[in-house]
Amino acid sequence: MRLVVISDTHGLHDRIVSLPDGDILVHAGDFMGSGIDLKEILSFNQWLREQPFKQRVVCAGNHDRSFKNMPEVARGLLTNAIYLENDGVTIDGISFWGSPYTLEYMNWAFMYPRGGAAKRYWDQIPNGLDVLITHGPPRGILDQIAPGGEHLGCEELRKAVEAKKPRIHIFGHIHGGAGTFENGTTGFVNAAYLNETYKPSEPAGKVRIIDL
User: Fold this and answer.
1) Is the pLDDT of residue 51 over 90?
2) pLDDT at 204 over 90
3) Angle at CA of residue 186, ends 207 and 142, nearest 5°
4) Which residues contact 175 (CB under 8 A, 6 or more apart)?
5) What is the 3-state secondary structure (H, E, C) of 78-133?
6) pTM higher than 0.90, yes or no?
7) Of 61, 91, 101, 116, which has the maximum CB count within 10 A?
8) Is residue 158 within 8 Å of 183, Cβ to Cβ?
């Protein structure tokens, strides 16, 4: 199975001219800009429908505020993807579990304070998981705005990933950390599409492929 993975398009999905061939498209959140204009969901949903994949799997991010503030309405508009919010799905024998939650920063959606409060979310991650999708990164892995900068990821998420050992962990949120990393057990992908200036240029701007 080939996954095509992306994150943090912030309403600019229609600027992606084409995506690589694959079986499942995964978007790890922040597909909206302001997060309050429902037309953004309709536009994203239409774009998803036009992508030639067998299935599309999506979780929200901190910018996707409609999914937190009016979940039934927002989910009802996202008809062309499987939406994951602290739950999972199995497709052709490959298990996925996704969560939009990230560390607290300003007044965005799906946030929790640093520390033990995160365990209520990450304790839910199943054992034996193939693909973990979270909007935010684990601490110390692809979580810096620039090389040498502060690590902005979640320590509790990292502990959960190290304990539960998913095959793949896909996330975004920290645009400058876009890239891949292997620790011998899990393959990590920060799939942010836009860079820190919200432009699709390297090291973001690259759609990544995972073969399972």
Assistant:
1) yes
2) no
3) 55
4) 8, 145, 192, 194, 195, 196, 198, 204
5) CCCCEECCCEEEEECCEEEEEECCEECCCCCCCEECCCHHHHHHHCCCCCCCCEEE
6) yes
7) 61
8) no
CA gap 186, 200 in Å, rounded: 27
Q: Which of 55, 30, 44 is nearest to 137 (CA)?
A: 30
pLDDT digits (tens, 9 = 90+) for 101-154: 999 988 899 999 988 888 999 999 999 999 999 999 999 999 999 989 999 999
- Chain segment 105-117, per-residue pLDDT in tens: 888 999 999 888 8
pLDDT at position 190 is: 98
Task: Please give the single-letter amino acid code of residue 164.
Answer: K
DSSP states of the chain: -EEEEEB--TT-GGG-------SEEEE-S---SSS--HHHHHHHHHHHHHS--SEEEE---TT-THHHHSHHHHHHH--SSEE-SSEEEEETTEEEEEE--EE--TT-SSEE-SSGGGHHHHTTSPTT-SEEEESSPBTTSS--SSTTS---SBHHHHHHHHHH--SEEEE-S-GGG-EEEE-SS-EEEE-B-S-TTSSS-TTSS--EEEE-
Give domain limits for the chain.
Answer: 2-211
CATH code at 2-211? 3.60.21.10
